[in-house]
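User: Hi! I'm working on a homework problem where we have to compare a predicted structure to a textbook description. Could you give me the structure for the chain below?
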Amino acid sequence: MNQSLQTHQLNPYAIQLCTLGRWITQRQWLPSGSGLFSVRTSEHSALFTASDKDKSELSPADLVSYDWANPNERDTATAIHQFLYQLKPQHKVVLQTHDLQATVFSRLIKADQHLFVGYELQQQVAATAAQRSCCPLAILDPQSTELTLQELHQRFERDTLAYAFLIRGHGLYVWGDSIDSAKRHLETWQFLIACELERIKAANQFN
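Assistant: Happy to help. Predicted structure tokens:
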């Protein structure tokens, strides 16, 4: 067994990430093996899930180490993970999913963000005191990697990100300072999005 493979298999964070992948897959938030997860392993590196691997069948040996001190060609999803890690050292885990409701919501809402008001659970994802009463979910249009990263940087500067954002038709991104916090943010945002879709549907029925 090579040293890199053995290290992955013994890495507790790698094991937890694979366990989380199975939990997320069971909720049908990753159709057709989609999505991308990562966990930080150092200041300049992280372990990523393999793009061609069903997340319900992951083992630590399937994870790929990426070192952004020596970058290779990146797709937009990988670049976003790297951006979030480089932005703040406390960001430890990044998750991207392709849930049905989140994808529909990203296409339904035409504004560049949607405000969630009146939900008890929004306090679980509020990044600032103001977001506890009015919690924003940023919605970005798909564009080049460079433009996406520029827009994300601007949104962070304006405090309009609450541990998550949507890219229209491309999925939901969440992050946290641990496996547990990232899982909590994902589950909370999935619930909030589902609530808003039901509220919008009910409002349209009565109009």
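For your comparison, note the following. The chain has a mean pLDDT of 90. Helices lie at 3-10, 12-26, 76-87, 100-108, 145-157, 179-206. Good luck with the assignment!
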